[in-house]
C-alpha cells in the first residue's frame, strides 16, 4: 500500500500546483479522497478566502457516493487540515462530519494556529492519521509559506 499511498499523495501535490501564484498568503494545497483504491474526489485550494482543498475534494467525492457516504475512505492532503476559524471554517470539522476514517497529510502545517492541532483533533474523533508521505515534495511546494510562518 505504501507505493499506492505515495501515488495518491503525488496526485494531490499535482493538484496543488494548479493554483501556483494564486493563493498568497495561504499555502498551495491539494487533496484527493480515495475509496477502494480509487480516487473518488479531488480538489485544490484556488485562492485566499475560498474553500480549502479538503472541502472541495469532499464535496466532489460526496456527489458520486450514495448510502454509505465516505466511510472507509481515505483523505490524502498535502498539508495538515486547518483547525481554526479564518475566512473559512476549520477543515477538521468537515472531515469529521464526512465519515472519513483516515487522513494522510504530507506535512504538518507550520502555522502556529494549526501546527499539530488539526491531526490531534482528527485522532480525538476516531480518525486515523499519518503524516510524512511525500513530505519533501510538499515542503518544496510551499517554501515561501513555510518561511513566512517561521517569521
Q: Could you estimate the helical fraction of the residues in percent?
A: 25-40%
In quaternary terms, these chains amount to single chain
Low-confidence stretches are none
Distance between the termini: 37 Å
Number of strands: 5
Strand content: 15-25%
Sheet with the most strands?
5 strands, mixed
What Rg, in angstroms, do the CA atoms define?
Answer: 14 Å
- The topology string of helices and strands comes to HEEHEHEHEHH
* Average pLDDT rating: 93
Q: Output the number of helix runs.
A: 6
How are the strands ordered across the major sheet? Answer: 2-1-3-4-5
Looking at the structure, what is the overall shape?
Answer: globular
The helix-and-strand class reads alpha/beta
Task: Label this structure with key terms.
151 residues; alpha/beta; 5-stranded mixed sheet; 6 helices; 5 strands; 39% helix
Structure commentary:
By secondary structure, this protein is of the alpha/beta class. The protein is built from 6 helices and 5 strands. It has a 5-stranded mixed β-sheet with strand order 2-1-3-4-5, sandwiched between helices. Helix 3 runs parallel beside helix 4 (117-124). The radius of gyration is 14 Å and the shape is globular. The mean pLDDT is 93.
Amino acid at each position: 500500500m505504501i507505493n499506492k499511498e505515495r501515488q495518491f499523495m503525488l496526485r494531490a501535490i499535482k493538484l496543488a500546483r494548479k493554483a501556483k501564484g494564486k493563493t498568497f498568503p495561504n499555502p498551495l494545497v491539494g487533496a484527493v479522497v480515495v475509496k477502494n483504491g480509487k480516487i473518488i474526489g479531488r480538489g485544490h485550494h484556488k485562492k485566499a478566502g475560498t474553500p480549502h482543498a479538503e472541502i472541495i475534494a469532499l464535496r466532489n467525492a460526496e456527489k458520486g457516493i450514495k448510502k454509505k457516504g465516505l466511510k472507509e475512505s481515505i483523505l490524502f492532503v498535502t498539508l495538515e487540515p486547518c483547525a481554526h476559524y479564518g475566512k473559512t471554517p476549520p477543515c477538521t470539522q468537515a472531515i469529521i462530519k464526512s465519515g472519513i476514517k483516515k487522513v494522510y497529510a504530507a506535512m504538518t502545517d507550520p502555522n502556529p494556529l494549526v501546527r499539530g492541532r488539526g491531526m490531534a483533533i482528527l485522532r480525538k474523533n476516531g480518525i486515523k492519521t499519518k503524516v510524512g508521505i511525500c513530505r519533501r515534495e510538499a515542503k518544496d511546494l510551499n517554501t515561501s509559506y513555510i518561511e513566512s510562518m517561521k517569521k
